[in-house]
């Protein structure tokens, strides 16, 4: 099994929805030893990316009603047991991952974390995040660097 993966989810064309992708871009620059992947969907393609890794952090934008830029760290169980997370498309991510653990338990990560960044604007086309979300992107990169200690 490989050690670490950071998987960024989002839409590169929508303002803050690209937050997970920006985290991956920055991780790639500052921590070349950490494997990174990007996906524009939360379907079963996620399983193809995470299977075979010991430790995975998935980063995505969310609209949960928190102040823009709020960072939420969650586990797979949190997604199903926390009411506010059920209103996010993270529930689809959770369903996909849970299916992977049921069907391929030996190939799924033993350590999986989900980091959500509260989006301010996910409806306007832009190749940049809003300032509050951009600030949180940098904070999430530092959280990941500290977690993996591979830098």
Low-confidence stretches: none
Q: Sketch the topology as an H/E string, one letter per element.
A: EHEHEEHHHEH
Shape verdict: globular
Annotated CATH homologous superfamily: HybD-like
Strand arrangement across the biggest beta sheet: 2-1-3-5-4
Task: Count up the domains.
Answer: 1
Major β-sheet annotation: 5 strands, mixed
Mean of residue pLDDT values: 91
* Radius of gyration from CA coordinates: 14 Å
How many H/I helical runs? 6
Instruction: Compute the number of strand runs.
Output: 5
CATH class: Alpha Beta
CATH architectural group: 3-Layer(aba) Sandwich
Question: In which range does the helix fraction lie?
Answer: 25-40%
Question: Which fold does the CATH topology refer to?
Answer: Rossmann fold
Structural class: alpha/beta
Distance between the termini: 20 Å
**Share in β-strands:** 15-25%
Describe this structure as you would to a colleague.
- The protein has helices spanning 19-30, 45-50, 76-81, 83-86, 90-103, 131-148; strands spanning 2-9, 35-39, 53-62, 71-74, 111-118.
- Helix content is 40%, strand content 23%.
- It has a five-stranded mixed beta sheet.
- It is built from six helices and five strands; from the N terminus they run βαβαββαααβα.
- The relative contact order is 0.26.
- The chain has a single domain (2-148), classed as 3-Layer(aba) Sandwich (Rossmann fold).
- It is α/β, with parallel strands linked by helices.
- The mean pLDDT is 91.
- It starts with a strand and ends with a helix.
- Helix 1 (19-30) links the parallel strand 1 and strand 2.
- Helix 1 crosses helix 6.
């Amino acid at each position: 099994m490989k050690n670490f993966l950071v998987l960024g989810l989002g839409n590169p064309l929508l303002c803050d929805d690209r937050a997970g992708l920006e985290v991956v871009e920055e991780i790639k620059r500052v921590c070349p030893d950490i494997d990174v992947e990007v996906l524009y969907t939360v379907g079963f393609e996620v399983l193809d990316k995470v299977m075979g890794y010991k430790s995975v952090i998935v980063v995505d934008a969310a609209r949960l009603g928190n102040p823009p830029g709020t960072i939420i760290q969650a586990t797979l169980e949190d997604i199903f047991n926390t009411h506010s997370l059920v209103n996010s498309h993270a529930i689809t991510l959770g369903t996909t991952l849970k299916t992977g653990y049921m069907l391929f338990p030996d190939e799924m990560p033993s350590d999986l974390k989900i980091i959500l960044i509260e989006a301010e604007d996910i409806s306007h086309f832009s190749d940049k995040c809003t300032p509050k979300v951009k600030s949180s992107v940098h904070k999430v990169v530092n959280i990941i660097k500290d977690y993996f200690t591979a830098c």
